[in-house]
# Entry
Amino acid sequence: MIKQIVSGLSILTLAASANASLITNGGFEDDLNGWGATNLIGGGVSVIADPSDSSNHIARLDDPSNFGGELLWQTFYVPTDVDSITVSFDYKFEEKDTSWISTDHAWAKLFKLDEHTFLNVDVLFHDHKDSQGWITFEGVIDTSSIFNHNPNAKIQFGIWESISRRTNSALYVDNVSISDTYASVPEPSSLMLLGLGLAGFGLSRKRKS
# Structure
């Protein structure tokens, strides 16, 4: 009985882990651990408390005093037997630019990597106007041509503030997840029912013996 229950729980554990995100710290609860940041000109990338929920943390890309560009990125590994991945995240772009010459903009891109070059797979979003609050992005990306090298992919968020001292835009990012499109996780209620069923099956076998 115990072996049967343990076996069943092992299957549940494998199913639950199958949909685990391919990146780490997508919620920024561990500061920028796992992420890289590049400040092209001035500015910076930081993790702050969410103004609407102090228990939640979000990433912020901005330069409050001048023009500049910032990047936030993480490389990861997509198994070669995974033909597509689901990318999801929340973002908010606060565009505050009074320059008449150029416009601030923010973007997210997904790259597939080889040892010497970056090959752009897709532009996940590219905004040059205030997003007017949080937006949830979710999309499916074809990875059937990805090569077997670790890491072989990279997600990157960026902001560019125009060459003007009258700019104070910011890009906020949270809840970044990248997973195998076809991996599935049973609902908690299904997990509970299956666990109870396994336990009941074991007790039934014990009574019969």
In short: Strands lie at 36-39, 44-50, 53-62, 68-76, 84-94, 105-113, 118-127, 135-142, 153-161, 170-180. Residues 2-17, 203-209 have pLDDT under 50 and may be disordered.
